């Protein structure tokens, strides 16, 4: 993996053909320049698919032969996810694909024509010029176990967001129909409150039930932890509730549906976390990291999901910079901060 700009500049020689690609959802635009920044051909517009990728390779190969420049560098912005398919395709063919910072592209685009005009053709050339200046980076294109971990952590985040959404919807329903419920059960995600909510118990249902009947429901959910005193508190809360008394049939359906969703997502998360643990323990050094006090399995899984194989790095500072924790010097005259 690259570390210094000098190393990157050494790869740009008089035998290098630089291809700048402006990536989009359906069509990409490619421009070709040499090591001095001169245009070598008209732009190429190609589809974001196998046919388009092959068209790009044919176009590039012809230019390479015509200009006697066998060394190819394909540069693109890592914006969104549309660049990934092309990057992995080029990597599979052992072609050199690099990425440039979108901020650098934005700041560079006025150098040629003193105009902030933005279009795909211009952006493709600007990307190529940024690559020519050595201001590019080798992309982290994960494979094998590391790719599995990245997709796994992405799915885990998705599940957690869905779980938070369902919890918020349950709280919304409680605020409307039984706002006093959480004064009796501080955490409605425990077994007993989950049982009552799943069965659609609203204030009028609890009021109509005897304490003995409610205790039977409690024992079905939890063998201990909730006694007659808590049941009496629940009855009192139901009797004095200011919750809505309209639309109760559908309100019960809503609560039952949301609790089913909550339980299903929770179960999937537990199973998924167990699978992530199996995966991360296959990574060299992961078990030693997990053994550190305060470091959990998901933390280590998330680390390798972002960083990938540690053997791709030459210096620890690369990982620090990747995480955004590198210190910045702010100096002017005698001021230093």
From TrEMBL:
Transmembrane intervals: none
Transposase IS110-like N-terminal domain boundaries: 19-179
GO biological process: DNA transposition
Organism domain of life: Bacteria
Domain Transposase IS116/IS110/IS902 C-terminal, chain residue ranges per copy: 291-336
Stored InterPro entries: Transp_IS110-like_N (IPR002525), Transpos_IS110 (IPR047650), Transposase_20 (IPR003346)
Coiled coil: none
One GO molecular-function entry: DNA binding
PANTHER family the record matches: TRANSPOSASE FOR INSERTION SEQUENCE ELEMENT IS1111A
NCBIfam families: transpos_IS110
UniProt protein name: IS110 family transposase
């Amino acid at each position: 993996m690259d570390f210094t700009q000098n190393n990157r500049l050494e790869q740009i020689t008089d035998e290098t053909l630089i291809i700048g690609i402006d990536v989009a959802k359906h069509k990409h635009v490619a421009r070709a320049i040499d090591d001095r920044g001169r245009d070598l051909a008209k732009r190429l517009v190609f589809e974001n698919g196998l046919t388009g990728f092959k068209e790009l390779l044919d176009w590039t190969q012809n230019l390479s032969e015509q200009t006697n420049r066998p060394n190819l560098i394909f540069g693109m912005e890592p914006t969104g996810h549309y660049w990934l398919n092309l990057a992995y395709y080029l990597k599979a063919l052992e072609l050199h694909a690099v990425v440039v910072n979108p901020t650098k592209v934005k700041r560079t685009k006025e150098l040629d024509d003193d105009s902030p005009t933005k279009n795909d053709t211009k952006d493709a050339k600007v990307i190529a010029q940024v690559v020519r200046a050595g201001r590019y980076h080798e992309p982290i294109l994960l494979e094998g176990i590391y790719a599995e971990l990245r997709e796994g952590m992405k799915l885990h985040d998705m599940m957690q967001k869905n779980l938070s959404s369902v919890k918020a919807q349950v709280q919304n329903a409680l605020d409307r129909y039984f706002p006093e419920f959480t004064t009796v059960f501080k955490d409605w995600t425990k077994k007993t409150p989950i049982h009552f909510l799943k069965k659609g118990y609203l204030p009028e249902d609890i009021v109509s039930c005897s304490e003995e009947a409610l205790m039977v429901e409690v024992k079905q959910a939890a063998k201990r932890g909730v006694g007659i005193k808590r049941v009496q508190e629940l009855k009192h809360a139901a009797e004095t509730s200011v919750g809505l008394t309209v639309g109760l049939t559908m309100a019960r359906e809503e609560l039952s549906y949301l609790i089913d969703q909550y339980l299903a997502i929770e179960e999937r998360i537990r199973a998924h976390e167990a699978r992530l643990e199996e995966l991360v323990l296959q990574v060299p050094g992961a078990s030693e990291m997990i053994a550190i006090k305060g470091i959990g399995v998901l933390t280590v899984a998330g680390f390798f999901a972002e960083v990938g194989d540690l053997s791709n790095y030459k210096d620890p500072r690369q990982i620090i910079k990747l995480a955004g924790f590198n210190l910045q010097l702010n100096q002017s005259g005698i001021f230093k901060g």
